[in-house]
């Protein structure tokens, strides 16, 4: 008689039921996929909400106007200080919005943005949504790179930690929902670094792809250029490592083998550089295949090492002239605001201080822990130069700049350090997992509580988003994004009242139904009733505006970026 065990045994040719281990592994895989979808889903919701509710920030009309000219007229004359790829990304959305622009329009890039959004019969809400949507998509795709990079280093749990920090980063959400260039450039650069890292195992498919991503980064923002030599060095390192790991490789002390591997790495780096240059040229030729270009009449003169660098780069002439414009900006003197102090010039510690204010506390703690783990855990140390050196180099470069205008100049920090933070799970201590989970939860709660006002975010140690304007200004808090919300608030709470408005932004108040006058254009004794002031204007107030504010009573705020006062 067959035993009970024999009765349950599969017949010949039948498929055995999955074991308990196989079921557990499948369940873990399914939970991992669900967690990824939830994290990216909440991020998408946050970015789309911001994109729908916010009016144009200061830089966006210029990029949208330029992208419109790219798509419709194939002309490179506007906004030469930034390469065209990021604006082509924005322009891909404008193919669906189809904004009207008179081909005969003549004016500067600021006037161009105003003409496209407000003076050509276009719906500014619709145009801005479609312009922002491709950047949102790119930001989500960059999240998948964060996930993949961290998973290769520390597995699924670490990958989810990294993706959570990326997906809940208020700065990434804020700038990933705008038609600007900072987030695409940072995403392209991280992708390039990840591909160079993967070249440690298989150089051939990944080195050329890394060159494409690197070219995309520098074809989006010139501020990515300092990372190029570093990425080429890392390419040499990766190819060297791949050669040492090949079966039958020569002994490590074989000089001839070392020279051969070094030559192979140098050739791979040169190939990646050529691919990157080709991508830059392709971006310009996509706009105008004939590459027509006339240098601006007011192009700044550049001398010394900067001029030599410009002349040596094998890039199109519009790129070179754009670099001259950027160097001209760096030679100018700008106003800054930090911790209540308005100053002229720049402070070398501005960006680290601003990041301290605007980074969630749990996120900053995990950045530190993950970076320490990269250096302390032996199997992770090879990844440290790939994850820690590029953002450190770019931050050092940005700290020498003359424009203290926001952490967007260091947006690569939360992108790269999200991957590094995932490495915190490599610490083999009982308490480490609990602390990591608690810090991720703290970060998520802090981010969710600021919804949907991500641009003015600051962490709890500095009073939260409603207090950011006391410590920072410009794109850290008030970039002109809340004009539409102000219109709704005035219509709801202050209908038919006289409005005195000091607005800092690129939007046109009347386009959103706001009838207002500037209180700085009339004697102070004529300014009575509702006084509305952008928070950056409060931070940078001159003596006249300060006097008006001193004799007014604060009654409300909009979006943590605009303050309403009652003046008797």
List the helices and strands and how they pair.
Elements: H1 4-8, H2 20-53, H3 60-73, H4 85-97, H5 109-118, H6 124-167, H7 170-176, H8 182-198, H9 203-218, H10 227-244, H11 255-287, H12 304-312, H13 317-331, E1 335-338, E2 341-344, H14 350-358, H15 361-376, H16 384-387, H17 389-399, H18 412-422, H19 430-450, H20 483-493, E3 499-502, E4 529-534, H21 535-539, H22 543-550, E5 553-558, E6 562-567
Parallel strand pairs: 3-4
Antiparallel strand pairs: 1-2, 4-6, 5-6
Question: How does this structure look, described?
Answer:
With 568 residues, the chain is mainly alpha-helical. The protein is 58% helix and 5% strand. The protein contains 22 helices and 6 strands. A 4-stranded mixed β-sheet has the order 3-4-6-5. Strands 1-2 form a two-stranded antiparallel sheet. The radius of gyration is 26 Å and the shape is globular. The chain starts with a helix and ends with a strand. The N terminus is likely disordered.
Nutshell version of this structure?
The chain has 568 residues and is mainly α.
Name its key features.
single chain, mainly alpha, four-stranded mixed sheet, two-stranded antiparallel sheet, 6 strands, globular, disordered N terminus
- Approximate strand percentage: 5-15%
Unreliable residue stretches: 1-8
Helix content percent band: 55-70%
**Topology order in helix (H) and strand (E) letters:** HHHHHHHHHHHHHEEHHHHHHHEEHHEE
Radius of gyration equals: 26 Å
Kindly report how far apart the N and C termini lie.
102 Å
Characterize the main sheet. Answer: 4 strands, mixed
- Care to count the β-strands? 6
Number of helices: 22
Structural class: mainly alpha
Order of the strands making up the biggest sheet: 3-4-6-5
Task: Summarize model confidence as the mean pLDDT.
Answer: 94
> Globular, elongated, flat, extended or rod-shaped: what is the shape?
globular
């Amino acid at each position: 008689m067959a035993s009970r065990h024999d009765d349950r045994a599969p017949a010949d040719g039948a498929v055995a039921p999955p074991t308990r281990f196989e079921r557990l592994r499948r369940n873990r895989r399914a939970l991992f996929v669900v967690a990824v979808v939830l994290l990216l889903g909440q991020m998408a919701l946050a970015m789309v909400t911001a994109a729908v509710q916010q009016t144009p920030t200061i830089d966006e009309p210029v990029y949208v106007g330029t992208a419109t000219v790219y798509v419709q007229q194939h002309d490179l004359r506007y906004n030469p200080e930034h390469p065209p790829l990021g604006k082509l990304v924005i322009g891909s959305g404008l193919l669906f919005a189809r904004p009207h622009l008179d081909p005969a329009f003549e004016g500067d890039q600021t006037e161009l943005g105003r003409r496209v959004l407000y003076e050509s019969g276009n719906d500014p809400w619709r145009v801005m949504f479609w312009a922002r949507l491709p950047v949102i998509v790119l930001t989500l795709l960059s999240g998948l790179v964060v996930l993949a990079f961290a998973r290769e280093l520390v597995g699924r749990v670490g990958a989810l930690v990294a993706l959570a920090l990326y997906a809940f980063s208020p700065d990434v959400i804020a700038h990933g929902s705008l038609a600007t260039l900072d987030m695409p450039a940072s995403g392209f650069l991280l992708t390039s670094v990840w591909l160079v890292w993967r070249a440690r195992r298989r150089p051939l498919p990944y080195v050329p792809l890394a060159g494409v991503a690197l070219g995309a980064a520098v074809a989006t923002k010139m501020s990515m250029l300092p990372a190029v030599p570093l990425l080429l060095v890392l390419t040499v390192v990766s190819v060297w490592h791949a050669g040492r790991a090949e079966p039958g490789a020569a002994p490590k002390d074989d000089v001839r083998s070392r020279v051969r591997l070094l030559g192979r790495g140098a050739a791979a780096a040169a190939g990646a550089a050529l691919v990157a240059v080709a991508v830059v040229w392709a971006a310009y030729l996509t706009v105008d295949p004939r590459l027509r270009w006339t240098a601006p009449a007011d192009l700044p003169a550049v001398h010394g090492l900067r001029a030599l660098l410009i002349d040596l780069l094998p890039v199109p002439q519009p790129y070179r002239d754009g670099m001259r414009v950027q160097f001209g900006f760096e030679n100018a003197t700008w106003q800054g605001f930090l911790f209540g102090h308005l100053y002229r010039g720049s402070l070398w510690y501005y960006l680290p201080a601003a990041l301290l204010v605007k980074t969630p506390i749990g996120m900053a703690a995990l950045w530190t822990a993950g970076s320490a783990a990269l250096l302390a855990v032996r199997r992770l140390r090879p990844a440290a130069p790939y994850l820690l050196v590029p953002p450190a180099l770019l931050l050092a470069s940005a700290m020498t700049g003359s424009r203290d205008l926001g952490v967007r100049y260091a947006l690569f920090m939360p992108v790269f350090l999200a991957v590094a933070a995932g490495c915190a799970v490599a610490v083999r201590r009982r308490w480490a997992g609990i602390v990591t989970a608690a810090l991720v939860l703290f970060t998520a709660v802090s981010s969710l509580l600021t919804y949907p006002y991500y641009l003015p975010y600051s962490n709890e140690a500095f009073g939260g988003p409603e207090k950011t304007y006391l410590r920072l200004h410009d794109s850290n808090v008030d970039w002109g994004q809340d004009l539409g919300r102000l219109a709704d608030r005035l219509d709801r709470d202050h209908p038919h009242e006289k409005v005195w408005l000091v607005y800092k932004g690129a939007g046109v108040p009347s386009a959103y139904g706001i009838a207002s006058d500037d209180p700085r254009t009339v004697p102070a004794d004529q300014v009575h009733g509702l006084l509305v002031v952008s928070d950056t204007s409060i931070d940078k107030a001159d003596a006249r505006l300060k006097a008006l504010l001193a004799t007014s009573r604060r009654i409300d705020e909009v979006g943590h970026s605009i303050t309403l006062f009652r003046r008797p």
